[in-house]
Fold this protein.
Amino acid sequence: MFERFTASARDAVRGATAYAVRPGPGTVGEGELLLALLDGRGSPGAEALAALGVRERRASVERSVDEARRRGGLTAADAEALAGLGIDVAEVVSRVEQAHGAGALATSGRPARRGRSLRSPFGDEAKSVLERSLRVALGRGDKHIGDEHLLLAMVAKPGLAASVLAEHGVTHADVIRVLARRAVAG
C-alpha cells in the first residue's frame, strides 16, 4: 500500500513517527498524523488545513492532542460526556498521575522502540486511518493515496483527530468542501 502514497503522504507518515518519539505514547496515532499534516506545505491536505485556519491555530491543536493523550485518548467531547454522568475526568487523571507519575494514562503499555529501529510502532488508530485512506482514494477513483486522503480518513469517522478538528471548528463537510474547491481551482 505504501507504494501508492504520494511524496506528501509519505512525508506525513514519516513526520508522524517523529511526533511519536516525543513524550507521549511512543506509538503513532491519529494525533501524530494530524500534527504531521499540519507541518506540510503545498500539498492538498496541508493546504486544506491551512485554508480552514487550522495551521494558524497549530499551538492550540497540539495542546488539544496532548491533553487527549494525557487523558488516555479521551477527547474533550468524551470528557464532557462523562462529566454529564458525574465523572470528573480531570480529577481522575490527576489522581492517577499522583499515584503513578505524570502521563501515566498516556502510555501505550509497551515502551517505544529504541536503538536500531527508526520506525515507531503504529497504533491501531493510525493503522485504521491508513486503511481508510486507501478506501477513500479508491472511492474517489484515485490511483494514489495523498495526504488529502489521510485527512479525509481522519475526519470521516469519530476519533481523536476528528474531535480535535471539531474543537477548532472543522468538520468532515468543511474538509470535503475545501478539497473540492481546490480541485476545481487546480
Q: What stands out?
A: The domain at 2-185 is CATH 1.10.1780.10 (Double Clp-N motif). The mean pLDDT is 86.
